[in-house]
Design goal:
The protein contains ten helices and five strands, in the order E-H-E-H-E-H-E-H-E-H-H-H-H-H-H. It is α/β, with parallel strands linked by helices and 233 residues long. The relative contact order is 0.11.
Length: 233
């Protein structure tokens, strides 16, 4: 996470030169961003990030040597001691790309379409750099639809902190898993948005999860929520 006075350090990883240089140029046009390096493959992205420790990585999925999913897994899961893992924004051509879901499981904080507008790109990088997940409610609902088509994982177990959740926190987690935004959850429970944010923060801390994207995945993959039932198991 960066302070307001420190530019957000970004690495752009894409094997297409036009996409790579285009996104880099756009980001460098903003005072609060600095593109520290670019990469042409997943393997190079991992090496570069180890060297420059960026705050955010724009990561293509289909790249040579190592794809963006494995690169994300390595960056998020094995950062050197004392070094925060970068936030990863997946770049994809289609919002229902079959690989997007694997990338989110690998630890990505969200995804962007390559046809994204400049303003949307800027907002997305700022959102994930601040520690939030970039999954609009509509995208979360599509993610849930994908989980509904998948068989339950027999090896999936609830995070150790699941039993530590209060009844209200479990209720909030179930609503997050349904794809509701914080304002929508607040309206459903008749509480303020700030109260919802506090509950979500506590849920993530207790479950040792990075963001609400991972909370949605955990809720469905561990069977806490069964698609269509919205009831805890």
């Amino acid at each position: 996470m960066t302070s307001l006075s420190t530019p957000i350090r970004v690495v752009v990883a894409d094997d297409h030169v036009v996409v790579r240089t285009g996104f880099a140029a756009l980001l460098d046009s903003q005072r609060d961003f600095t593109v520290v390096r670019t990469a042409t493959s997943g393997a190079e992205a991992v090496r570069v990030c180890r060297e420059v420790s960026p705050d955010v990585v724009l990561m293509d999925i289909r790249m040579p040597e190592m794809d963006g999913i494995e690169a994300t897994r390595q960056l998020v899961g094995s950062s050197p001691e004392g070094v925060d893992a970068p936030r990863v924004l997946i770049l994809t051509t289609f919002d229902l790309d079959e690989y997007v879901y694997d990338a989110l499981r690998a630890g990505a904080s969200g995804f962007l379409l390559k046809e994204v507008t400049a303003e949307r790109l800027f907002d997305a990088v700022r959102v994930v750099a601040a520690g939030d997940a970039l999954l609009a409610p509509g995208i979360t609902r599509r993610l849930i639809s994908e989980f509904a088509l998948m068989p339950a994982r027999p090896d999936a177990t609830p995070p150790p902190g699941m039993k530590a959740l209060t009844a209200r926190e479990r209720e909030v987690l179930l609503l997050v898993a349904e794809g509701l935004s914080n304002p929508e959850i607040g309206a459903r429970l008749t509480v303020s948005e700030e109260t919802v944010k506090t509950h979500v923060s506590r849920i993530l801390a207790k479950l040792a999860l990075r963001d609400r994207t991972q909370a949605v995945i955990a809720a469905y993959e561990t069977g806490l929520v069964v698609p269509g039932s919205r009831r805890p198991q």
